[in-house]
Amino acid sequence: MLEPNPPLTDLARDASLLLEETFGAGPALTAAAPGRVNLIGEHIDYCDGFVLPLAIERHVVIAARPTDSSIARVVSTGLDPVEIDLSVPQKAGIPQWSNYLRGVIQGFLDLHCRLPGFEAAIVSSIPLGAGLSSSAALECAFATLLEGLVDTVLPTVDKARLAQAAEHQFAGVPCGLMDQFASSFGQKDQLILIDCRSGEPELIPFTDPSLSVLVAHTRVSHDLSDGGYAARRKDTENGLALLGKSSWRKVTMKDAYAARETMGDRLFRRARHVITETARTIEAVEAFRANDFSKLGSLMDQSHRSLRDDFEVSCEELDLMVALAKEIGFEGGVLGARMTGGGFGGSTVTLCRTNDAAAIASRMHQRYLDETGIVPLVFATRPAAGASLLNLSS
């Protein structure tokens, strides 16, 4: 079953209604930011690699109005309300989800922005724990809202890095820059090739309407702050140190094999993933440009196997969802499939023919339900625009 994506206008209306119901008045401004999926290039954004994400047609939307106080009062459906004093430096606090907001607020305070008090309401169509960067979308939407409240526009790269710093320092997740860059730099009908060493994004056209991206959320949730993500990142740091290199971009498989005994099996496999996944991402971009979808599908398959076997961040449910897509195959409209996001649960991404998307989604949904007893969420997306203030007057 192919789930529809709620239109941005509907999300903005819901956020406005929640604001008015909670605080008695409607919004003066509304901000939105998309989640993301990554077609290829996983767990290498913190290894100076290349990644190829796209912003998706699922969003966090925040409606807000300024007040005469120095307090931010924020509500979101299904979460505990938040009250934050904007006149003092921020520290991590409770509820836990508020730390994404506190980190962004501190980023603006560090820029010597004088923040007014405000009331805000948040709604989201990005499922939590799906590996679709709901946290980055929240950070980028909130940063965009604060831009509007203080009447400034940060350079996009600065806003993305401010949001990334919030995740590091307040949420305790040492993420790379991909998620916040994708949510900030996203454009309609464009993939984003990010050089994670230079921090430079390059837009890769995804204009062919006959292609779509299916996202299949396994409903097996993960929490990247529980240590699995940080442990993998530490492994890559330790492996690089043993290789004696300043950057993974300077490491070849020949180097890795030469140091295999010193690194041990686990760190060698982590190194093999980083080196080969970086190469696969560049090959995938070349395949996109050449419309070589057979090659692209093979690269996505290799990526999933590497994440499963060498980086060990997949799980049975992710493997099953990928296997179901591959079972449908090229003749059924599937071009390639792999897990996406941090792993330990979450979602898969399937590149497919648009005309076959509904049938593919229906088959994957039913087979996954039959084998696991879990009802998945499967939706289609094309590349979406990045974080912005919404113009709701028209």
Spatial arrangement of strands, main beta sheet = 5-4-6-3-1-13
Provide the helix percentage.
Answer: 40-55%
Straight-line distance between termini: 33 Å
Helical stretch tally: 11
* Annotation, overall tally of beta strands: 13
> Roughly what fraction of the amino acids lie in strands?
15-25%
Shape: globular
- Biggest sheet overview: 6 strands, mixed
Mean pLDDT: 94
Order of helices and strands: HEEEEEHEHHHEEEHHHHHEEHEE
How big is the Rg?
A: 21 Å
Structural class: alpha+beta
Word description of this protein:
By secondary structure, the protein is α+β, with helices and mostly antiparallel strands. Helices cover 43% and strands 22% of the residues. The chain has 11 helices and 13 strands. The strands form 3 sheets. A 6-stranded mixed β-sheet has the order 5-4-6-3-1-13. A hairpin with a 2-residue loop joins strand 4 and strand 5. Helix 3 packs across helix 4. The longest helix has 30 residues. The protein is globular and about 60 Å long. The two termini are 33 Å apart. The relative contact order is 0.18.
Summarize the topology.
Layout lengths: L7 H16 L5 E10 L11 E2 L1 E15 L3 E6 L2 E7 L12 H13 L6 E8 L9 H17 L5 H16 L6 H8 L4 E6 L4 E6 L5 E7 L10 H16 L9 H6 L1 H30 L3 H17 L6 H13 L5 E7 L6 E7 L3 H16 L4 E5 L6 E2 L5
Parallel strand pairs: 4-6
Antiparallel strand pairs: 1-3, 1-13, 2-7, 3-6, 4-5, 7-8, 9-11, 9-12, 10-11
